[in-house]
Amino acid sequence: MQLPQFSTYTNAMEPLVTEAVEQLLQTLPLSVVESINQAEAIAYALNRLPPLYATTEEGWYWQQAQAKETLLPQIFKAAHWGIKAAQKKHTRFPNPLSLSTHSEYFAAFQRVRNMAQKTYN
User: Residue 53 pLDDT more than 70?
Assistant: First the structure.
């Protein structure tokens, strides 16, 4: 599993949940899988698990190892719940997130990124 390169902090739980959802979806019929919004299933599962943020590569790998060692059953349970919830939910909120809609968030994110780069450089 490769460390995401898009920010100075990242939730190490995200790729684990994504993998769990993808593995569980592989066990379902294609017609069911096509009806599920995978992003909704992942978000639902992540909201039911503890976030494991890291700011260094070593910390990210440590968080990944800890989660695999202690939280794997909960990750798969949350992924299962996420898939079930996504099956029941049909376009209740049809507009996905966009950069322009959340410009304040991304401006704050950029400020934090710039501060962190100054700290580590």
Answer: yes
